[in-house]
Amino acid sequence: MNQVQTGQSDDIVQAYQHAAEVGGRAPSVHNTQPWLWYAGRTGLELRADRSRHLPTADPDGRLLTISCGAALHHARLALSAAGWAPHVARLHDPRSDDRLAWITVAEHAAPSAQDRRLFEEIDIRHTDRRPTVELPVPAEALALIRQAAADEGAGLHWLGQPDLDDLAVAAARANEIGLADLDQRAEMDYWVGGRRPARTGVPSDAVPERAPQTDVPGRDFGHPGTLGVGEGHARSAVYGLLYRPGDGPEDWLRAGEALSACWLKATDLGVAVLPLSSVIEVPATREVLRRMLSGVGHPLLVLRFGLAGPDQAPVPGTPRLPTERVVRPGPFPQP
Prior knowledge:
The chain is α+β, with helices and mostly antiparallel strands.
């Protein structure tokens, strides 16, 4: 692949900067936005920003890295939709845990209709914690969503009974453990509806005013928000385990890319998505999920898919950090 060399047109730098800005719109655990980009003539580097890490709930950085993987996929999609062919070196510097990926572009390439469609969904995609409607998700849609994850190297395992019963118990147990841990409770209070850093975290209008009616409980934030949930019940929702063969940093990064891909595909198909990460945070409940996979891989996230009510008001978007906080110009500092 002929990579663009230093000294060529400034539109390369602008393309990298724009891709990094688009990456900043990706989903992240508690909307912590734990990424940092360096954009220069020779490439675009993605790093983890440990200042926005959740050390109590996510001590290994699993969810941080998944979040950064979603940002990486968003950035790749921005480049592809703009007519560039991105080449990605993941975890390109073993000397630093923070250096996650390095993106370069080759010559211009005509964007596919699929890339353009998914790129347009980036600003529409959102997290909806309300119940889904009592209509089944079409099987064709589920197949396309699953394929989107597979195209990014991750599996999506649909859960049926009795696994759903076990998932419900595990999710409730994870909520109990999280709320009982004073350090984790303080961490969550900081990022959700509380004194979170400006333009980060989950605002109160994205948190349900009361626990929604659903067979599998979502995260219990420990306090109500202001998001109305209506009277529906998410009985028709479909739950999937996003998994990879291993449970290391590269698996987490690739899972984040798959999360972005299948979420954007779901949005394109009119399917609402709710990630459930609390059951991943607790080792005991994560082991329950691992057994559901029967040795095929390691669970990295639970995703709920369902159809949103046509009369539901849109969920307000979560705030985003200004570009200058997450995108910096090259040259790239050494670890």
